[in-house]
Amino acid sequence: MIRHVAAGFFRRTDAERRDQELAWNRSDQAFFAAGACHILAWTFLETYPDAGFHLVDLRKVGEKDAFHVVASNGTDAFDHAGWTSLDELVRMSEEFEGVPIETLPVTEDSLHSYCQSHWCRPPEGYWSDPIPRAQAYLKQFPAAGSTAVLR
């Protein structure tokens, strides 16, 4: 069972930011918590397109850029550690960051436009293709883990 902790716990080191292979070789949870959360969230939406989920940015209040991206239906949330409530995810993030956190819906219609708008690495910017890795990782978390009915 994967432990649910704030994404900030897994922030990349300066060396991992400079070296994509080093960043790639982190555990799946660390990789999808910090550095590829947007890839996992978009992969979730593509896997469950009719489940009523959307992307949500978690930001420190007053900050322009998100520090974490999750899939949520407004109640349930999915991220690097699997299922939790969106409220609990925000609470854990506030405790870790030590500041208030706000959630904002993502309005971009594609992963590439999101990456351009939010200074995120697009899939082709990783050491290897992160989409198959995200698809495999997602399979570890059955849809039954959510209180929402995913079909």
Task: Provide structural commentary.
This protein is α+β, with helices and mostly antiparallel strands and 151 residues long. It has one domain. It has helices at residues 14-18, 20-24, 28-33, 37-47, 86-97, 111-118, 130-138, and strands at residues 54-60, 68-72, 76-79, 82-85, 101-105. A 5-stranded antiparallel β-sheet has the order 4-3-2-1-5, with helices on both faces. A hairpin with a 2-residue loop joins strand 3 (76-79) and strand 4. The two termini are 23 Å apart.
Mean pLDDT: 87
- Taken as a percent bin, the fraction of beta residues is 15-25%
Assembly type: single chain
Indicate the low-confidence ranges by residue numbers.
none
Structural class: alpha+beta
Order of helices and strands: HHHHEEEEHEHH
Radius of gyration: 14 Å
Taking the alpha carbons of the first and last residues, their distance comes to 23 Å
What strand order characterises the main sheet?
A: 4-3-2-1-5
**SS field, number of helical segments:** 7
Number of domains: 1
Number of strands: 5
Biggest sheet architecture:
5 strands, antiparallel
Principal-axis shape: globular
Helix content: 25-40%
Highlighted features:
151 residues; alpha+beta; 5 strands; 37% helix; 17% strand
How are the SSEs placed, and which strands pair?
Elements: H1 14-18, H2 20-24, H3 28-33, H4 37-47, E1 54-60, E2 68-72, E3 76-79, E4 82-85, H5 86-97, E5 101-105, H6 111-118, H7 130-138
Antiparallel strand pairs: 1-2, 1-5, 2-3, 3-4
Helix pairs in contact: 4-7
